[in-house]
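Researcher: Let's run the pair from yesterday's discussion. Sequence first, then tokens, for each.
Model: Starting with the first of the pair.
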Amino acid sequence: MQARGPVHEAYAEPTGAAPAPGTVAPQAPPADINEVPPDQRPEGDNVQWIPGYWAWDDDSHGYIWVSGFWRIPPPARRWLPGHWQAIDGGWQWVAGFWAPDDLTQVQYLPAPPPLPDQPAPPPAPDPNSVYVPGIWVYQQAQYMWRPGFWVPFRPGWVWSPANYVWTPNGCLFFEGYWDRPLGERGLLFAPVRFGPAWRGGAFVPSFVVNTDFLLGALFVRTAAHHFYFGDYFDKGYANRGFVAWPDYRIGRVGFDPNFSYYRHLYTGHPEWEKNLHELYHARAAGTIARPPRTWNQQVQAVRTLPGNRTAFVHNDIHVTHVENVSVLSPLAQAHNVHVTGLAGLARTPVANVPAHVVKLEPVTRDVHAREVQAAAQLRESAALRRNTEAKVLSSGGPRPLLHTDPPHVAALNLPKPIPHVEVPRPGPVVAPRVAPPIPVMPQHEVRAIPKFEPHPLPRPPIPVKR
């Protein structure tokens, strides 16, 4: 069990960065693990099991399994998993994405121009606003500039802005949508490294990544367009494109929307952001112990903690020694856990931060059967998408590269989602959380497009002569 590694794409993906090719692995991924959902899940009527996938790990020069997890999906969205695509020189990862429920076709676009140097945001209309940076949008057979704009802050909701997904056939563009904060999206399970002793069989994820720990050790790997968590504090990782979550910027004027949410949540407590930065810097400098990298190392670290385990790691950084090394928790210990959003970093009581308690419930036999079937359907959708893109790639079909190239449209006949199984619960009926209205987008502008070299599209693998 790994106490660090990739964050499942369906849990969180960086937004705002220019679309870039996915990771290239020198060898084919193994067959998917026979992964089975655990018998406990967070309470709720729309909690779905999202299956795991293989990710290439540069440190071990091998594949690591990014475990499936329980997720409350964004409203009116469905997950379309990523896949590994064979190309000339290896295998390339093509990222998954939260697609609109009514998606029936995809439009492969030429790569958008690089983000221009954006000026400082205009004054906010009120203190209760969050800034969304500008982005290039393909309209009327050309790229037009959508200026940045302000979105009202909504407690319990994160605005995930418009974003691009790179594929071997071109770039996919999706408009923004509302999502839940990181601490309320579900249960994220630990990645797993399977060694040669693994003999197959069913694998049930059983170690949960602690959400509060995640906020204090989250990184954006810009080249891979992926979140990573855990001990990536060494300078060598910065040289490989790992950026600490609080330091990540979109076009130099915007924050990651998830960080922006927590930053705004602690308005009036600037010491929260200051101390969060200090926690990252102190771990990088070694003045605060770095977190363990595996579950076994975590057990040993907790066992050998010196002195008072309830004392804080630093006078200003209100994280205890136990919290500092507690990356994972067994699933059985994830019930009734209070997610604080690292409120202790604010030093003073924070009254306006809503409390969130993780409550688990048993997974009934009917629900479990439904989730196993739904996971198989997600893998079927991923294979359908992979085959659709592979046909264009291998046939040498239209793949837009220059921003003046016309887009290529392809049908995507996804299977209908499997209906959810209603679970009766005692007590009063809780009304579903309704997403805020979609923000009004600013008018697009025609701007001069600078000269730039887009990433070359990959070539299909060379056939082997027999």
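Model: Moving on to the second of the pair.
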Amino acid sequence: MSKLTLEQKLFHDKLDVEAGRANLSRYFLIPNCNQILTCFKDIWSQDAGISTFVYATWSGRIAYHMSKSWYVQAAATEVNNTIFFQNGWNWNTNTASGAAGIGEIAYQRGFDQTAYPSTYEFLGYYNSSAKTTSERVTTSSGSSWKAAQHTGGMSGIFFSGQQYIWRKDHGTTRNPHSMALGIYGGAGTDFQSYAPIKAEAYLGAFVQAPFKSHPLDTYGIQLHWTKLGPLQTRFLADANKASGGDGRPPSAAHLVADIHARVSLLPNVALEPSVQYAINPNTYYAPMTAKHPHDIVEVGATLFIYLDKIMGFPP
């Protein structure tokens, strides 16, 4: 279960109120990349505490549309790191670590308004969850580990945007599936030194419908830079030392360059392949190791089968 909410629109649909089980990535920092494997935001997930798109938590949101393009919205959601090990039907909050509050101002124009759509979002967040970090201390009998809890929560800001800049038809139509070029990007920072991710930025470009016979295909490139927080960098060095390594700290910043695509194989079946080259990777997800990772090439793909459309469900 990824979404189950009650929604009410008021004042000629200018005001939108919604509450229930949902993921705030449906409404905030809307993915502006053209490929799911490369469209990640580490600050959003690791610092703000918003779970992966398909997982739902208790949430509430209110949005007000000042015009057809401009709107403001705010929301609150449960932060629960154990949601990844559940199936969507466990609705209690016993394992929640806190709550996150988000507010943003945004601008969006689609193909219904212009031949050159654009989306821009600027938001701030606060995650009340206490952040626990592991710190190494030296005792008379050697080294040991203790958990240090920072109760101040985490807060930060993030900006993202997407803009179509060129069309083969020079904007004479609003066809969303004609050949066009778009650019996108984003950047953010967390204000606390104990945050896992201190700063992040990405920039990319994509071309859609380069082949007339495949109007739904897109091809793109992207650079994604991430910087770890100072306590997280120190922890990875200490964990490496405790595991028998040399204790050398990893580079706080790492860069991922990639090329990717979305290719329609059959009606309602699509493949999203990507090739990524990671520079200065770290052991964030596997800290207890004596090894230091090297630059690496990663190849991946996601297969999409739209069962709802195949079975004729209404949109």
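Researcher: Give me one sentence on the second I can quote.
Model: Confidence is low (pLDDT under 50) at residues 137-141.
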